[in-house]
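Board notes, transcribed. Complex of a protein with adenosine-5'-triphosphate.
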Amino acid sequence: MTTTSTPTEARGTEPAGTRRSDASVDLRIESLRKTYGEQTAVDGLDLLCEPGTVTGFLGPNGAGKSTTLRILTGLAEADSGTALVGGMSFRAIPQPGRVIGVMLDARTLHPGRTGLETLRLAARTCGMRTSRADEVLEMVGLSGAGRKRVRGYSYGMRQRLGIGVALIGDPAALILDEPANGLDPEGIRWMRRLLRSFADAGGTVLLSSHQLAEVQATVDRVAMIAHGRLVAEGSLEDVTAQGGTRVAALDPESLGRAVEASGVGATRGSDGSFTLALEPADVGRLALEHGLVLTELQRLSDGSLEDVFFSLTEDGQAPRPAPATAAAAAPTTSQEA
Ligand SMILES: Nc1ncnc2c1ncn2[C@@H]1O[C@H](COP(=O)(O)OP(=O)(O)OP(=O)(O)O)[C@@H](O)[C@H]1O
């Protein structure tokens, strides 16, 4: 699926040239479901990541992010639904490393190998020439440490090497679990530019992170999940513009109809609440018009992904969907799972 062309012009830790292939690959998750015994890890998830975008995959601990990424990368099997990379399941891709670069846990890198050996082995595994390892080593800013064993690497250096392994096959898409972990401010800035440059060259990036301010500075799209369900999805601007007003009513179904009729941009929470792009007084008027009894009316500050995250996942402890209103949130009022 990928083509190799001119050599990468890597300069120091400049991210330029991280992608040379012009292949494009989307990541498409539909109605994905996975349970572990009684525990539902992923509960009917839909998500589309398109070429040219960096999507931040967010959610509190246990929300189902890692399970989703593991299914997408062929490490776990879904009970139902699909998770496709460029239209194929990961396991069906003949040379997956040439299509999608994956870093789920940089701690699993072999401690006894040097950085260069790690990258050479990764290059061989996906059918790349071994000189690609030197290019990538430079790309991830580890040229000076290539002959050092991984056991002597700091956590941040391992993260860089892990990202290097993901990039080795010149893939069209990247899946990274907590890539900013352990990176110092310079490293975070480097990673942000690397991912931006990758996406600007037509690459597709899906990354999970708990570092919301960092995510806000890096991504252009956001998918937020709680209890395995999507609670917000859209461009960073759309999701953070939902700073407006959070409202809940005694009768969530009637509230949903009122919100829908108003035509106002809104996100539905998994507990049946809505976050509306309106001032509280206007939400109050809307409620009055529809004879609704409100149980919550809260102004959220604009522009912060952190505010949206906490409002939609209840201080990081995502709300359990009520049985009668278990619709997943959607960026508009008309979509329900
Ligand atoms: N192998 C497993 N066996 C049993 N339960 C599991 C397994 N993997 C995940 N789970 C459960 O599935 C749910 C989702 O877990 P998952 O690791 O996908 O969440 P997460 O969003 O990645 O969390 P974190 O941010 O803490 O990494 C959790 O309740 C977890 O305990």
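Residues 1-16, 315-337 have pLDDT under 50 and may be disordered. Residues 216 and 325 are 30 Å apart (CA to CA).
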